[in-house]
Amino acid sequence: MQKDILGKALLDYFQGNYTEDIFTETNISEEDVLPLPYLFREYKDMPQLEQKALQLAKGKVLDVGCGAGIHSLYLQEKGFDVTAIDTSAGAVEVCKLRGIKDVRNCSLLDLKNEKFDTILLLMNGTGIFKNLKEVPKYLHHLKSLLHKDGQILIDSSDLLYMFDTDDDGGVWVSSEKEYYGELTFNMRYKGETSEEFEWLYADFSTLDRLCKENDLQCKFVQEGEHFDYLAKIKVK
Hints:
Helix content is 24%, strand content 32%. It has six helices and 14 strands. It has helices at residues 5-14, 48-56, 70-77, 89-97, 135-144, 204-213; strands at residues 22-26, 29-34, 61-64, 82-86, 103-105, 116-121, 146-157, 164-165, 171-172, 182-189, 192-193, 197-200, 216-223, 228-235.
């Protein structure tokens, strides 16, 4: 059984036991800090891409990978009917304690026989796809959860900036993975380290191509401050 590093950290912070942050590391970067207060930020402190996504939300909403519930809580307080899901039991417990009415400990692929007007995949929403080969399976499932005129609001980043360039402008990309946005992650918190997990960062042209291949329309909505973007996906 995998360690619920994220859930433990979120519960600690919510219960007033905040003494350190989460540390993350990937196959292409050194250890970095994920500050716990950031995971509890309010709307005014969110990046513009997240604010824009929440502004575009409509109807019945599904918040995938809800974490501490910051997006769900905001929309619920605005009167939206929100379903929040996360594979972290600790995150789901925090959401319940914060007052989110419909929060479930399950994966996206476990959710069936329901329809939504808006599906949110934020904080690098393409990460849940794991790798490029898995994307069609997830897109097909997401499509099955959408009402006829529903929308998927998803953000991600183009990681090409993280690789070295040569004098001619070419980019040196490791051949370890099929695509440079396919990363291997782990998290560390209070002496515990998670198992490694796959996490996908998809540049917009790649996401757009994958959507077209799976009979979906992908529209560029807004560019972020650091090679990131927000996109809207709809059924053709």
